[in-house]
Amino acid sequence: MIREEKLTKIAQERALEKLESYSVTKEGLKLALKNSFIAGANWEKENDIDIKDIGVPNICFSLIDIDDKKYDEYSKQRVERGFDDSETWSLSGTLANFLLPRLKRFNEVDMCLREDEYKEDMNNFISLLELEIRDDGIRDFTEEENKTIEKGLDAFKRLFFRLWW
After folding, report:
1. Is 21 helix (H, G, I), strand (E, B) or coil?
2. Stated pTM of the model
3. Which of 3, 46, 78, 143 has minimal CB crowding within 10 Å?
4. How many domains are contained in the chain?
5. pLDDT value of position 110
6. Domain range spanning residue 127?
7. Which of 87, 108, 137 is the last residue of a domain?
8. What does 87-131 look like in DSSP terms, one character per residue?
C-alpha cells in the first residue's frame, strides 16, 4: 500500500487540530505532511509532523535546505527527536537564536531582576546573543564588539541561576 494511502482522514484532522493554535499555514502543513511521507514517518505516533515545515516561529533551527541530499534523513531526525544534526553545525548560533527572543520576553515579565546590576547583566547578555546571530554568525567583530562579548559572557555566569520567576 502506498504511504500516502495510509494517512487517514482522522490522522489529518488530528494534525490540523494539534497545529491550529499555532497559526500554521495550510501550505506549511501540506509541506510538513509531504516531507513526513518522504522521511517515512510512522503516522501511528502522535508527533509525526516535521516541525521545520509547519511555520511555527522559533522552534526549529535546522540549517538544511530542502534540496539537500540529506534532507530526508534530517527530516526523520526532526520527527524522532525534535531536532536534526544541522542544528549542531553552529551550536552557539542555534543557542543564541533560541535564547534571544526568550530572554527578551523574560526581561519584560521578570520581577526578580530588580537590581540595576542584573538589568545591566541582562542587557549585556542580550547584546552578546545579538552579535552572535548577526550576519549569520560570521563573527567579524570590532574591538568594541569583542568587549561587548566579554561583558555578555561574564554576565551570563552571574545570571544563569537567576533566570526564573
Report:
1. coil
2. 0.67
3. 143
4. 2
5. 80
6. 91-162
7. 87
8. GGTTHHHHHHHHHHHHHHHHHHH-SS--SHHHHHHHHHHHHHHHH
